[in-house]
Structure formats: structure tokens, C-alpha cells
Amino acid sequence: MSALHWLDRAARRQVEEAWMLIGEHVSYETARHATSVGELLPWYERAFNAGVAQAGLTLARLVMENASLRDAWQEKAMKALHAAAQANLPEAQWLLAQQGGGSPASGKVVRDVRKPSSSPLEWAASAADAGILAARYALAERAWAVADYAAFLRWSLPLARELLQRGG
Fold first, then answer.
1. I need a labelling partner for 160 at 20 to 30 A (CA). Which of 7, 95, 142, 154 fits?
2. pLDDT at residue 111, rounded to an integer
3. pLDDT at 100
4. Region 157-166: what's the mean pLDDT?
């Protein structure tokens, strides 16, 4: 039996520390393989409501991955994802950017991650600045597609340098 099993049992008995530990330490990668993912969501929601931003990201990812959970949890998941992105979790910023239409939208990057209405492009830029490679690639591709060569260089040069360091 896994630690998640025992924490889940304790959480069902209303042991606050159990759902806080789930929200803080049980990753998405672990939770997604649980027998009943839907039964874990309340623990992530409680931890998120108690201020654990990572729990909000995990909640959102689990809901987005499970079509059967979306109707009941979609609104809470998006709220949690926005809060996690605003808490500067790069994975949340990138996931939120992807939710805005699959790839960063056209437009100028204006940086203010504290602003709740940040665009998908702003979230992608925040994620890229924090080191999310997929966001850097997407922004470089977008810049090339719209002939914004200054932005292309901004996003592609660090990628090229990294490749040179690995290969050289």
C-alpha cells in the first residue's frame, strides 16, 4: 500500500494534516495513477483553499486529463489553475497559456503576471522566462510566424546556446 492510500484514509476521517500533505507532496504524476482520481480531488481542493498553490495546479491537471470529472470540477479547476499561475508556478502559467487556444495568441507581450486577465501570450512568456522549454519553443515559433524577428531572437537564442553547450 502506498503513502497516498494511507493519507487518503486519514483525510476521509477529516484529518486536516492528511489532505494538506496530499496537496503539498503527492504529485500529479502519482495521483493520476490512483484507482479513483475523482475521490482525491476534494483533498487537493482543500489544500488549495488553505493556500497550497501546487495543490491547485495538480487539481487542474487531474480534471483536465479526466473527461468524466470536467462537468463537476471544471470551474474549480480553472480557478485553481489561475491562482497557481498567479503564484508564479511556471507549469501552471504554461498550462494556462495552452488553455487560451492551444498555443500563444498573437499580440504584444506586456508583462504583469499579477494581473488576473493576463493573455495566453503573457502566461507563455512568464513560463518561458521561468525555464519552461516548451513555452520558449512555442514563443519562438510564433515570433517567426508573425515575422517578429526581435522576439524570435529573444526566445531562440537561449535555446541555441543550450544546444551548443550540450553538444560542445
1. 95
2. 42
3. 81
4. 91
In the predicted model, what is the mean pLDDT of residues 20-30? Answer: 95
Q: What percent of the chain has pLDDT over 70?
A: 89
8 A C-beta contact, residue 41 and residue 59: yes
Cα–Cα dist 11/46, whole Å: 10
Give the separation between CA 44 and CA 22, rounded to whole angstroms: 7
Nearest CA-CA partner of 135 in 147, 123, 117:
123
Instruction: Write the single-letter amino acid at 100.
Output: G
- Residues 6 or more apart from 135 whose CB is under 8 A from it? 90, 93, 94, 97, 124, 125, 127, 128
Q: How far apart are the first and last CA of the chain?
A: 46
Give one DSSP letter per residue of 43-65, joined into a string: HHHHHHHTT-HHHHHHHHHHHHH
Worst-scoring range by mean pLDDT, 16-20, 89-93, 103-107? 103-107
Q: Which residue has the cell 480531488?
A: 41
- As to burial, measured by CB atoms within 10 angstroms (0-12 exposed, 13-18 middle, 19+ buried), residue 42 is middle
Q: Cell 512555442 appears where?
A: 138
